[in-house]
Prior knowledge:
This protein is α+β, with helices and mostly antiparallel strands. It is built from six helices and 15 strands.
Amino acid sequence: xxxxxxxxxxxxxxxxxxxxxxxxxxxxxxxxxxxxxxxxxxxxxxxxxxxxxxxxxxxxxxxxxxxxxxxxxxxxxxxxxxxxxxxxxxxxxxxxxxxxxxxxxxxxxxxxxxxxxxxxxxxxxxxxxxxxxxxxxxxxxxxxxxxxxxxxxxxxxxxxxxxxxxxxxxxxxxxxxxxxxxxxxxxxxxxxxxxxxxxxxxxxxxxxxxxxxxxxxxxxxxxxxxxxxxxxxxxxxxxxxxxxxxxxxxxxxxxxxxxxxxxxxxxxxxxxxxxxxxxxxxxxxxxxxxxxxxxxxxxxxxxxxxxxxxxxxxxxxxxxxxxxxxxxxxxxxx
Length: 334
């Protein structure tokens, strides 16, 4: 009888133990997604730790920029007229335009300082004679017309000069500095994107490597940033000066110019931390051991695989840098 009771108790205990629910493995529990996909909470720290994160800090950004460049013009002494220099262009159209520009300048100087002065003297003389009855109204009108004609000629020369100066500015040249350039001067032109102009300054140093001299590095300086943006390419021209030692640089030579663009101090994230959905940019922030939050962010330029962030995340927060596709799928239901 005691044997039967003991057996019954054992059977009861085994049944009771087997009826208890087996503990679930948290690694296989589905994450909890809430607030329209903006909050994702994992139920396993092991899975949560699979996502690499980066703690954000602001830093000074220097973008390494390289751009093709060309020796657009060189300046040499004239063998016949020692006090004047010859500008050699790689562009024949600019060479012709420069000759015409100088001719218009000479014409203006002649009209303004010689012809108009003579016409004014003549007009004043005729006017005085008329006041004393020694000249007719016709004589005065002719003198006045002759003066007006020369003033019109001067205005026409100025208009033609402006047309040529505009052409030079469109090609990266400063016409006045071009005319005053000293023997040995070199004019190097390169293009950079419009969105980098804010970080480029006149006087900034750069380095150049010319195809003709691959083993040499030349130090240059940004002399001027032109005032015109190309409407098709959205590029703007820079004029760079460089020492032409022994006159080895020739018009038409190609080079690569390198310089750092100072973007200032900004908060940045890795390029791999950004996802774009329907034109909007997002990043995921790890807000606790198990929780991730989707944030819409406003971004700026990409610099050395880093992207400037203006809003959406703050300094000191941890942003996910790997595993974004899994978070994206959970957040957006893909």
